[in-house]
Amino acid sequence: MNIYTEKYLNLLEILYKQNKNLLSAFDNKGILVSGATGMINSLMIDLLMKNNNTRIYCIVRNTNKALERFILHKDNNNLAFVEADLCNEFDFNQPVDYVIHGASPADPGTFLLNPIDTIMINIKGTDNLLKVAVKSNAKFLLMSSGEIYGNVAEEIIKEDNKGSINTLDVRSSYNESKRCSETLCVSYGYKYNAQYNIVRISRAYGPTMKLSDKKALSQFMFNGLKHEDIILKSKGNQRFSYTFASDVVTAILTVLLNGVNGEAYNIASDDEGLSLYDIANIIAKKSNTEVKIILPPQEEQMKYSKAVNSILDNTKLKEIGWNYQYGLNDGLNITLDIIKELI
Q1: How far apart are CA 175 and CA 170, in angstroms?
Q2: Is 235 within 8 Å of 293 (Cβ atoms)?
Q3: Is residue 341 part of a domain?
């Protein structure tokens, strides 16, 4: 179903008015984006297309599918598509000011089904886009993840935390390739003077999430909207940071404008302390359903994050001018209200 429902279009208007000054800073700028149809970048593109002169080039595997997602902008000449396989070098000769790399498997099930592909898209994709950024003298932004910290003892995780990840776990194909991608940015900065920033995104959610999304929070919402029991596949003791999609977008744009070169920034709201069990019950209450704990077979449990605590400190990001606009309750209400028309 076309995402451009009346409710989603109304949300875009609200978000644009709330963030007009930030979005307008990208007037007359060119941006190359990978992962354009993903939850975060598709919303970012919808918002930036409200500017008159922001030029966006989307790297996609299939132009026709991308056009379906961005049907609202089919007549906007400022949105263009570049068909490419990021695992291979490709020619791109348009002038751009920024390169945003967001293409990566984000579904935990994919890490086990395609661990090698997961590693390659993160490492080779980052390498090939850094080459474009250096050639274009553009600022590069890597969309990394809070998953790079792994399972650490600290209650609140700052950017200088070195993390703890088991390299002999196949699920680490995602975590470790993201970590290597970050080091690739550092290496390009050292050898080629590349201008770059890294953002480590907490668990994001929003109305642009794909209906095929298998992450726990997504499944909770989908089950609730279908009036099915919400299935918790663990005891639910894990505590994570959650961030509404539009707040991730404004964080990324703020880092592009104000981020100190070579620095990494955590993206997270101040909602902390809620366990996965708490989140499941909040959604169950909103959906008038129940939570059931059903522990899956060991093989399926391999898909899940080993982290039991991943509360990201956002102080550094706030120091460059960002703050979140939607807490968990408001963000969930907006997401549920829009997605219920799409299921």
Answers
A1: 10
A2: yes
A3: no
The closest of 145, 8, 150 to 71, measured between CA atoms, is: 8
Kindly tell me the burial class for residue 241, based on how many C-beta atoms sit within 10 Å of its own C-beta (0-12, 13-18, 19 or more): buried
Residue type, 148: I
Residue 152 included in any domain: yes
Name residue, tokens 């522990």: 295
Handedness of CA 317, 322, 327, 332 (dihedral sign): negative
Helices 39-48, 245-258: axis angle to 10 degrees equals: 70
The CATH number assigned to the domain holding 132 equals 3.40.50.720
CA-CA distance, 128 to 30, in Å (whole number)?
A: 18
* Structural domain boundaries enclosing 118: 6-210+242-270+311-326
Instruction: Measure the CA angle with vertex 9, ends 4 and 13; round to 5°.
Output: 155
Q: Which is nearest to 146 in space by CA: 318, 309, 317?
A: 309
**Structural domain contains residue 157:** yes
The whole-angstrom separation of Cα 306 and Cα 298 is: 13
- Length of the chain in terms of residues written: 343
Q: 219 CB contacts (<8 Å, ≥6 apart)?
A: 213, 231
Structurally, the chain folds into a number of domains equal to 1
Residue-level pLDDT, tens digit, the chain, 343 residues: 699 999 999 999 999 999 999 999 999 999 999 999 999 999 999 999 999 899 999 999 999 999 999 999 999 999 999 999 999 999 999 999 999 999 998 777 777 889 999 999 999 999 999 999 999 999 999 999 999 999 888 889 999 999 999 999 988 999 999 999 999 999 999 999 999 999 999 999 999 999 888 888 999 999 999 999 998 888 888 899 999 999 999 999 999 999 999 999 999 999 766 899 999 999 999 999 999 998 877 666 666 666 678 899 999 999 999 999 999 999 999 999 999 998 8
pTM of this structure: 0.96
- Using a 10 angstrom Cβ sphere, with 0-12 exposed, 13-18 middle and 19 or more buried, the burial of residue 120 is middle
> Is 232 a member of any domain?
no
